[in-house]
Specification:
The complex is a heterodimer of chains A (59) and B (681).
Chain A: H1 2-15, H2 20-31, H3 40-51
Chain B: H1 2-22, E1 28-29, H2 30-56, H3 66-69, H4 81-92, H5 96-104, H6 109-137, H7 143-150, H8 153-182, H9 186-209, H10 214-237, H11 239-244, H12 249-265, H13 272-297, E2 300-301, H14 321-328, H15 338-342, H16 356-379, H17 383-390, H18 393-396, H19 400-409, H20 416-425, H21 438-453, H22 458-495, H23 505-528, H24 534-562, H25 570-592, H26 600-613, H27 618-661, H28 676-680
Antiparallel strand pairs in B: 1-2
Helix pairs in contact in B: 1-2, 2-6, 2-16, 4-16, 5-16, 6-16, 6-24, 6-25, 7-8, 7-24, 8-12, 8-22, 8-23, 8-24, 8-27, 9-10, 9-13, 9-22, 10-13, 10-22, 12-22, 12-23, 13-21, 13-22, 14-24, 14-25, 16-21, 21-22, 22-23, 24-25, 24-27, 25-27, 26-27
Classes of the chains: A mainly alpha (59), B mainly alpha (681).
Chain lengths: 59, 681
């Protein structure tokens, strides 16, 4: 039961992009080991900038 | 067993569709529409989409997607398909599928409903999925880039002009929708104003206090928004504040224009991004709530299946059933705008090629379902009430008595007392001539919600619905202005290099001002036009959106032919043909029709004659030259749009012809195939 709840919570976080930074860190450790990753805030701001540079909302 | 189940689905679907088509009683239960929709979607998804994915697109689960090959932990990242589905649906679903069906309900519930179902299953869903798939095969390239690569520079340029035009008209018409919902409504105005500082507050929270914790930030924001809805009611009852927020439509239009400019030049994290999170959660929550309420309540639809306005004399917009129902309902059936989202952001998240079926086809099905819900909310009102809210003063008369007399004479009885009582219940001074669809949808939603979840809160539910619509109309407005600004900066950069720098402030200000001036102009004219403005702008928006869909389907058809799938080219070719016919006929009628409520040129001429003969009142005469110029401009714009569509079609046919004849064509821009196993290791 608690396993199911945890999965649901993870899904909700993923939908809201709450887990984006953790996923970025996981990727960073694997692909760019040894270099410093962005801070949580810098990552968030960079992602917003990227998201709103193209068409991301419709009519 | 499986087979039996699907036969049952097919039979119930056929029974429900037949039921809504042949029913001729006083009222019909909304569940007929719901059942018909669910069965049609289920069959479309289970059979048609599976066939298209397997045979036409030949999606290959063993081929690595760009998310896997180019994974950078940010925009390219393989993501669970249900999560991509959620993101993609949130991106494509805007106010369009709520407004179009509400306006098209003037023809009765049947024509719009059938077009939403058939258009989505055979057109819109196919377009979204096909473009999503093709962009995935091309590392997430945009529609414009694909048009240029696969067809040639003409197609590419057409896609850019089409996108820019649709953006400007879309923003103008959405701006007009909220102006009409807010004019002389202190409650709505105060609530919508309050959404701006709330969004800024959440923006600061997500940047400074708890960076990137979107879920908790959004929950706080939504609580504040609900509080703002109730707070608007206090403002409405306060003698001084009430006057302060009681604004006329010109005042609100100027506010929207100024707001649009400021929002487009502010950093995105401050206003745009947080408000988008709020509007997305609100949208998903409200749509879900509406679906639950409709099923719980099973309301009766009071609008006839078909009204006399199919002949083109409709009060909400002029023009006959064919072609205008297909222009009025774009989002919800087929929306070219989706092709811009399907190419670009979403393809970079797809983990497996076969996921395009759920994400592309499935999301559009859900959006179509939202359109069905909007149709139900519009048609469960008394038809007389529906027409009284949605008809402009230029059509039914400027006073309440004149309006109810006109509308009752059409066979849709309504009284001034009934309208007055309804306005009082909704916490408004009047509901007459609140054109644009948002207020009548809000009345419909409020009555559903208050019946399902507790009586007596009608006014709160009404303003909740208005706030809900305004929040994502404003998001579309500044996101659209920003996209337009980037496109314009890019174009101006070809003339003078520094203009292309997206972070150079003089360039940002100039380009933003030009885009805002573009839609601000149409918005302002829409506000001063006594026929409501929606009558002009919504068809123009529909034509622009179908043009974009036409370009997307041309690109898709061209790619299918080039990849040796000529015999399956009808899958995108058929919806393309239909859109080309509809758009061309609609444009032709909008330009040359002698009916002044349909033809731009006829309307311009009639007004010019009235102006010359002195038949206009001084205030009408003051705006007449602007309105005359605008009608002619609209005619030119519509002709330009349809000309672009035919140029792209001709270009696609040229390329296809060369393929068939074995002549050289631009090479495929598909990324080379990489097997899944090679990426994983």
């Amino acid at each position: 039961m608690s396993q199911k709840l945890r999965e649901l919570w993870q899904l909700l976080r993923a939908m809201a992009t709450d887990d984006a930074y953790e996923r970025y860190l996981a990727h960073h450790v694997q692909a760019h080991a040894g270099t410093a990753p962005l801070s949580r805030r810098a990552f968030y701001l960079g992602e917003q900038q990227r998201k709103w540079t193209g068409v991301s909302r419709c009519c | 067993m499986r087979k039996f189940l699907w036969i049952m689905v097919a039979l119930s679907g056929a029974f429900a569709v037949g039921g809504i088509a042949l029913h001729r009683g006083e009222t019909i239960n909304a569940m007929w529409l719901v059942v018909a929709a669910i069965c049609v979607y289920a069959i479309g998804y289970r059979f048609y989409s599976a066939w298209v994915v397997a045979k036409v697109l030949s999606a290959d689960a063993g081929r690595a997607t760009p998310a896997l090959r180019l994974n950078n932990g940010r925009d390219f990242m393989p993501t669970h398909r249900w999560i991509v589905f959620g993101h993609h649906f949130a991106a494509i679903a805007g106010p369009g599928p709520l407004i179009g069906p509400t306006l098209a309900a003037q023809f009765g519930y049947l024509p719009g409903t059938l077009w939403i179902l058939v258009g989505a299953v055979l057109g819109g869903c196919v377009q979204d999925m096909t473009i999503l798939f093709m962009s995935t095969r091309r590392d997430g390239r945009s529609l414009g880039q694909m048009a240029r690569d696969e067809l040639g520079p003409v197609g590419g340029l057409a896609a850019i002009i089409g996108t820019l035009t649709i953006m400007i008209i879309l923003i103008a018409v959405l701006g007009l929708v909220i102006v009409n919902a807010m004019k002389h409504s202190p409650w709505a105005t105060a609530t919508v104003f309050a959404t701006i500082p709330i969004a800024v507050l959440i923006g600061l929270y997500l940047r400074n206090i708890r960076p990137g914790r979107v879920l908790e930030g959004s929950m706080i924001g939504i609580a504040l928004l609900l509080f703002a809805v109730v707070g608007g009611g206090w403002v409405d009852h306060h003698p001084t504040l009430r006057v302060l927020f009681d604004m006329d439509s010109k005042g609100i239009a100027w506010f929207v224009i100024g707001y649009g400019f400021i929002a487009a030049v502010l950093p995105v994290w401050l206003l745009l991004a947080p408000r988008d999170y709020l509007s997305t959660f609100l949208k998903l929550g409200t749509v879900l709530l509406l679906a639950i309420a409709v099923v719980l309540l099973r309301p009766e639809i009071k609008m006839p299946a078909i009204t006399q306005f199919v002949d083109g004399t409709g009060p909400i917009f002029g023009g006959a059933l064919f072609p205008f129902v297909f222009i009025t309902i774009a989002c919800g059936a087929i929306s070219g705008f989706h092709a811009l989202v399907s190419s670009g952001t979403t393809p970079k998240l797809i983990g497996s090629e076969t996921d395009v079926r759920l994400i592309g086809y499935g999301s559009m099905m859900l959006e179509s379902c939202v359109a069905i819900m909007a149709m139900i909310a519009a048609t469960l009102l008394d038809p007389g009430v529906y027409f009284a809210i949605n008809s402009g003063p230029g059509v039914v008369g400027a006073t309440a008595d004149a309006a109810v007399t006109t509308i009752s004479s059409w066979g849709f009885p309504v009284t001034a007392d009934q309208m007055h009582e309804l306005a009082r219940e909704m916490g408004e001074s009047t509901l007459f001539a609140r054109t644009g669809g948002a207020p009548s949808l809000a009345v419909g939603m409020a009555s559903i919600f208050s019946n399902a979840f507790g009586q007596g809160l009608l006014a709160v539910w009404y303003h909740f619905a208005i706030m809900f619509e305004a929040v994502f109309i404003l998001t579309t407005l500044d996101a659209g202005t920003r996209v337009g600004r980037f496109m314009l900066q890019d174009a101006l950069g070809h003339v003078w290099k520094p203009m292309a720098k997206t972070s150079w402030y003089p360039s940002v200000l100039i380009a933003s001002a030009l885009i805002v001036a573009g839609w601000g102009y149409f918005l302002y004219i829409g506000v001063v036009d006594p026929n409501g403005g929606i009558n002009i702008l919504w068809p123009l928006f529909g034509i622009a959106n179908q043009l974009l869909a036409g370009i997307a389907l041309c690109v898709a058809t061209g790619i299918l032919v080039k990849s040796g799938k000529l015999r399956y080219a009808w899958v995108t070719g058929l919806p393309l043909t239909w859109l080309a016919i509809v758009t061309t006929v609609a444009t032709w009628q909008k330009v040359v029709s002698p009916d002044v409520r349909v033809g731009f040129l006829a309307a311009a001429e009639q007004m010019a004659n009235k102006l010359a003969s002195g038949a206009l009142s001084p205030e009408q005469a003051a705006v007449a030259p602007q309105l005359i110029f605008n009608q002619r401009l609209d005619a030119a714009l519509a002709m330009m749009l349809v000309a672009i569509l035919w140029i792209v079609i001709a270009d696609m046919l040229r390329v296809s012809w060369r393929v068939v004849k074995g002549l050289p064509v631009p090479p495929s821009s598909e990324a080379p195939a990489v097997a899944l196993a090679e990426v994983r290791t």
